[in-house]
Amino acid sequence: MAFFSKLKDKLFKSSSRLEQGLEAIVEDGGEETPTPDPVIPEPEPEPQPVPEVPEPSPVPQPVETPSPIPADPTPAPPPPEVPEAKGLLGRLFSRGDAPSEIRRTLDDDMLEQLEELLIASDMGVDTALRVTANMAEGRYGRKLSTQEIKQLLAQEVARVMDPVAKPMPIYAKRPQVVLVVGVNGSGKTTTIGKLASQFKSAGKKVVIAAGDTFRAAAVEQLQVWGDRAGVPVLTAPEGSDPASLAFDALTRAQEDGADLLMIDTAGRLQNRADLMEELAKIVRVIRKVDDTAPHNTLLVLDATTGQNALSQVETFRNLADVSGLVMTKLDGTAKGGVLVALADKFGLPIHAIGVGEQIDDLAPFDPEEFAAALTGLEPT
Ligand SMILES: Nc1nc2c(ncn2[C@@H]2O[C@H](COP(=O)(O)OP(=O)(O)O)[C@@H](O)[C@H]2O)c(=O)[nH]1
Ligand SMILES: [Mg+2]
């Protein structure tokens, strides 16, 4: 639970946006009802792949009590003879006697609002439609509370994310070469520092190659991370050929009997062809030392770029043989939903998530925890 609350805390911007949105949707058009037996989300037979919204609502629900929160489009008429204050008192008392909560009938209007909310949370249109269709499956016309909607949404999000939640595979091959790619500023260097620290703590012998020779500052930054993690960083002068550095680093890693070599790369060159050529050359050259390298190509993505992360995956899959993703900066963004869209669209493994700038701010990706944190679901 401790980790859960930490993650939820760190993802608070994403979760609070979704959470507030879900509450607003239920309150808008919902009605206060005595707390009945909860409609526990049932496991469904098969996820419906096509976002098909079900038949028309069977019976329109009459509004019996005024909503305590003014519903925007259709304010419920106040009860005729009861004065305001008494009505309020009455509601308070009845609330005390029998617990009540706001529930809303799951209908087309509500589904549309849910779709909009998920799209606004960066899940992307296709994923938002699929997720809401699955939420509605078998539940159309039921009255749901905010908590139940959160549970349903978390269940659907976890279902999409489950197949991609995989730690970075570790192979018997030594040294295992990990090439780290991604646009400038996405968090490659920071992630290498964090990963190096984690692997070192796990007893692995790690070497880092500062392959972003484009900027002197990038090399210094990596040296700082290497010092923190207690891992050697091999460098080359600014502007020198990163492929020859990678070659030297792999040779040295072999000689030293290292378990892992992590190669940092530049994310910004003059144009895409330059970047492609640089990455291709690194791969070509390290294959002269080990023709099975690189064993992992990690694409680092910045969650704050939202939907742009999707096009970065497209681009880098064409530049390099991306084997897995790390999503950084999930702290402090309201765009965490993009991870759901990525999982749904590409199915690439998500190895870890960055939740801060400190060395231990890299968490394994856990779909249930992520789904709960994203939707603001409290653990029960
Ligand atoms: N809040 C937060 N900041 C991060 C995270 N990962 C990286 N950063 C910051 O993002 C900026 C760019 O990171 P850097 O590793 O230099 O990106 P690179 O250009 O891809 O190597 C730095 O200021 C990092 O401290 C993260 O998970 N959360
Ligand atoms: Mg860098």
Automatic annotation (TrEMBL):
Keywords: Cell membrane, Cytoplasm, GTP-binding, Hydrolase, Membrane, Nucleotide-binding, Receptor. Residues 1-12 have a biased composition (Basic and acidic residues). Its main location: membrane. It is found in: Cell inner membrane; Cell membrane; Cytoplasm. It comes from the Bacteria. Its EC number is 3.6.5.4. The keyword Isomerase does not apply. CDD domains: FtsY. GTP binds at residues 182-189, 264-268, 328-331. Residues 84-161 form the Signal recognition particle SRP54 helical bundle domain. Residues 35-82 have a biased composition (Pro residues). Belongs to the GTP-binding SRP family. FtsY subfamily. Involved in targeting and insertion of nascent membrane proteins into the cytoplasmic membrane. Acts as a receptor for the complex formed by the signal recognition particle (SRP) and the ribosome-nascent chain (RNC). Interaction with SRP-RNC leads to the transfer of the RNC complex to the Sec translocase for insertion into the membrane, the hydrolysis of GTP by both Ffh and FtsY, and the dissociation of the SRP-FtsY complex into the individual components. This is Signal recognition particle receptor FtsY. It comes from Ruegeria haliotis.
